[in-house]
Design goal:
Blueprint lengths: L6 H17 L2 H10 L3 H9 L18 H14 L5 H14 L5 H8 L5 E3 L9 E4 L7 E6 L2 E6 L17 E4 L4 E7 L1 H39 L1 E2 L2 E2 L4 H30 L4 H27 L10 H13 L5 H12 L20 H17 L2 H6 L9 H9 L17 H13 L5 H16 L2 H13 L4 E4 L15 E5 L2 E9 L9 E7 L10 E7 L5 E7 L5 E13 L3 E2 L5 H5 L12 H15 L3 E2 L2 E2 L4 H29 L7 H23 L11 H15 L6 H13 L7
Parallel strand pairs: 1-3, 9-12
Antiparallel strand pairs: 2-5, 3-4, 4-6, 7-8, 10-11, 11-15, 12-13, 13-16, 14-15, 17-18
Organism: Novosphingobium mangrovi (ex Hu et al. 2023)
Protein name: Acyl-CoA dehydrogenase
InterPro entries: Acyl-CoA_Oxase/DH_mid-dom, Acyl-CoA_Oxase/DH_mid-dom_sf, AcylCo_DH-like_C, AcylCo_DH/oxidase_C, AcylCoA_DH/ox_N, AcylCoA_DH/ox_N_sf, AcylCoA_DH/oxidase_NM_dom_sf
Length: 734
């Protein structure tokens, strides 16, 4: 797995970044908005090889791939140079691949920046007058004309400029006045041009990713400087939290675009749909980002004194030249479920890789075989995503098979890598067995192994490792919610032990577990996070009361009461007042988990129902609007999965903490909620029932999704972490 560009690509990116940052001053950006084109900068871009990127080496080009061009286009989005950059570099490729020697002079002029080229996005045989990206400044336009691919020499009279939203040279070109030269004819030429338009979608999506991220960062930087009521406005969650959402969305554009290019390189069956989804997602995410950025700037954002308005205009102008982005979602649905063929580009090589590796695939195969051989119908009937789905005999069998604590050799595990561990979790969830009990048992086991007394290791750890015991978490309290450091449950010295008094809320699994990992207050004279101590407490100890709390998710949690509960000091974990440090001893188990698996299962269930629910003379899935909604859910699931992969990769590669984990958790839980609600609507009224199979799962997913935004830290907590770590904004919890 890899989420990093190569050193060569980084050098190229930096070269264009330096050029754009140096030249595109606020004054020049505004001048370009008036002119619609910057001829001097165009020539400098050509000198750096911008228009040679996709020209084959056999025609004296650089012979680079779509991903390299996408790296350039992200910088274009970040800095807003004017002109049809993506269109020209793709036009140069078409001329090189279709044209004979008669077009050599034209190709040389285009790649040298002496002539500007663009693409007609519709067949001129059907639309002889049509809007062309930066058509006002494009002397050359390549178009499909019925059964031929034609290079038009467009006179100025046929491309008269007019006022438009972004001042970027958008022009309705009259091709009837152009001078056509046939570049190619036949199926291969038509397919190459169609594939080029698909690549244009990807490069436009990449530009929107760069634009959106820059807009969010501009707003975040402004929020750090602008003061209101004596403090930076970035401290207000009303400012920072929407920007955290926007950051996830625009990062999703980048990752979904990368995923689409990777799918094309691998020949994946859903590659064509991913191309459509990437541009649809990018258009939506960028539009949301710029609107929120202007809101952050307040009235100043409406003025032309600040650059943010330029980003707001380009965010709409670039994708809308193709038409309503909603049509891209319908197109994706047709490509996914209607089996609509589409010629696709040869994207070349790219370094980005989402492959989970042989170790992970082997673990999936082993778990599949184990579950098929071991799970009885009675066990499966009990499966549930929560603690209530824990099956003690299956838990024991997994321990005996070495499948319980895969990544923890000190607990008898195999020491598999994070990718294999995540894959094993996905494999279990595919079988319907989420098994949170095993995850908590592993965390507690590691803490005992690393900070526990010999007595704890002998009496508790051996039972956990053997699969004979599990533990629950005693962190949350009725008044503290996600702020575990606000714990008020007291542990007071009593001879060689401690007396515990207090209440813990949401102690899930306490009714099933043998022990609870207890966070207690041992010092009230220091900062709240410094006065905490951790204990292992047997749940059958005198003075403990477990009271059930039922949720509408068919899940039981508990409120637990501790009345003068005695615990020997040997059952303490770590130092007195060192509870926070003890909690960190198992942090390697956290790699940005999210809810992509649950989202995928819900989508599969919705697809199943849509194929059986009648609709007129057909089925519900025959409707384009239905296919589009399913495609939208797929896009959210894929972005969620990519966030999880990125968080795992960053942990493995020891990359800086840029809130990748919180982004994975927060984004996936929020989108799970959105899509669970929509798919429940889509398949109603059947989805209202709890009939076995797909209907029950969709029904359950709607209820489950509400909890994902709360447990493990609420979305608000994670938004604050994203704003602080990824955008450099001030703390919002002061």
């Amino acid at each position: 797995m890899n989420f990093e560009i190569t050193a060569e690509q980084e050098m190229m990116r930096e070269s264009f970044a330096r050029l754009f940052d140096d030249r595109l001053t606020p004054e020049r950006l505004r001048a370009n908005e008036q002119a619609g084109f910057d001829a001097a900068l165009w020539g400098e871009m050509a000198e750096l090889g911008a228009f040679l990127l996709r020209v084959p080496e056999t025609r004296d080009g650089l012979g680079l791939g779509t991903f390299d061009a996408a790296v350039l286009m992200e910088e274009v989005g970040r800095t807003l140079p004017s002109g049809p950059i993506a269109e020209t570099l793709l036009a140069a490729r078409l001329i090189a691949m279709l044209g004979d020697s008669a077009f050599d002079e034209t190709l040389a002029a285009v790649v040298a920046g002496e002539r500007v080229a663009s693409l007609a996005l519709r067949d001129v045989g059907m639309a002889p007058r049509q809007f062309v990206p930066c058509g006002e400044h494009a002397e050359l336009v390549i178009a499909r004309s019925d059964d031929a691919i034609v290079l038009y020499e467009v006179p100025e009279a046929a491309r008269k400029g007019e006022a438009n939203l972004a001042g970027d040279g958008l022009c309705e070109v009259d091709f009837a006045q152009g001078g056509p030269r046939v570049l190619g004819e036949g199926k291969e030429a038509l397919a190459l041009f169609a594939a080029t338009l698909e690549e244009w979608k990807l490069l436009t999506a990449a530009a929107l990713a760069g634009l959106g991220r820059k807009a969010v960062q501009m707003a975040a930087d402004y929020a750090c400087e602008r003061k209101q009521f004596g403090q930076p406005i970035g401290q207000f969650q009303a400012i920072s939290h929407p920007l955290a959402d926007n950051l996830c969305e625009v990062d999703g554009t980048r990752l979904l675009t990368w995923r689409a290019i990777r799918a094309l390189a691998d020949g994946a069956p859903n590659a064509a749909a991913l191309v459509s989804l990437a541009l649809w997602w990018g258009a939506d995410a960028a539009a949301r980002a710029v609107s929120q950025a202007i809101q952050t700037f307040g009235g100043y954002g409406l003025t032309t004194e600040y650059d943010i308005y330029l980003y707001a205009l380009r965010a709409k102008s670039w994708p809308l030249v193709l038409g309503d982005p909603a049509q891209l979602l319908i197109e994706a649905g047709e490509r996914l479920y209607g089996e609509v063929p589409s010629p696709l580009p040869d994207v070349g090589e790219l370094p980005i890789e989402f492959d989970i590796g042989e170790e992970a695939r082997a673990m999936i195969a082993e778990i599949d075989a184990f579950m098929e051989a071991s799970v009885t119908p009675e066990m499966r009937a009990k499966f549930h995503y929560s603690w209530e789905g824990w099956v003690p005999e299956l838990h024991k069998m997994m321990a005996e098979a070495g499948l319980l604590f895969l990544s923890s050799p000190e607990l008898g595990g195999r020491g598999v890598g994070p990718y294999a561990r995540a894959a094993s979790r996905r494999a279990l969830e595919k079988h319907g067995y989420s098994n949170p009990a095993a995850g908590v048992a592993e965390m507690v086991g590691l803490m005992i192994s690393r900070a526990g007394s010999q007595e704890l290791k002998d009496e508790v750890l051996t039972r956990i490792v053997a699969g004979d015991a599990i533990a629950s978490l005693g962190y949350s309290e009725p008044g503290s919610g996600s702020d575990v450091f606000a714990a008020q449950t007291r542990a007071t010295r009593d001879g060689d032990g401690w007396r515990i008094e207090g209440t813990k809320m949401f102690t899930s699994g306490a009714n099933l577990a043998d022990y609870v990992l207890m966070l207690t207050r041992t010092n009230t004279e220091v900062a709240k996070h410094k006065g905490l101590t951790m204990f292992i407490v047997p749940l059958k100890a005198p003075g403990i009361t477990i009271q059930p709390v039922h949720t509408f998710q068919d899940e039981r949690t508990n409120i637990t009461f501790y009345d003068n509960v005695y615990v020997p000091d040997s059952w303490r974990l770590g130092e007195v007042d060192g509870g926070v440090r003890t909690m960190s001893l198992a942090l390697e188990l956290e790699h940005g988990g999210g809810f992509a698996n649950a989202m995928y299962a819900n989508l599969e269930a919705a697809e199943e129902l849509c194929r059986v629910i009648p609709n007129g003379n057909g089925r519900l899935i025959d409707k384009p609007q239905v296919r589009a909604r399913l495609a939208r859910a797929l896009a959210a699931m894929l972005v969620s999965e990519l966030f999880e992969h990125r968080a795992g990769w960053a942990s493995v590669e020891k990359k800086p903490n840029l809130a990748y984990g919180p982004m994975a958790k927060m984004f996936s839980s929020e989108r799970f909620m959105d899509d669970a609600r929509d798919l429940l609507d889509l398949t109603a009224p059947l989805s209202l029932t709890k009939r076995d199979g797909a209907a029950q799962l969709i029904n359950q997913s709607y209820r489950h999704a509400h909890g994902t935004r709360i447990y493990g830290g609420t979305s608000q907590v994670h938004r604050s972490m994203i704003a602080e770590r990824a955008l450099g904004m001030p703390r919002t919890r002061a």
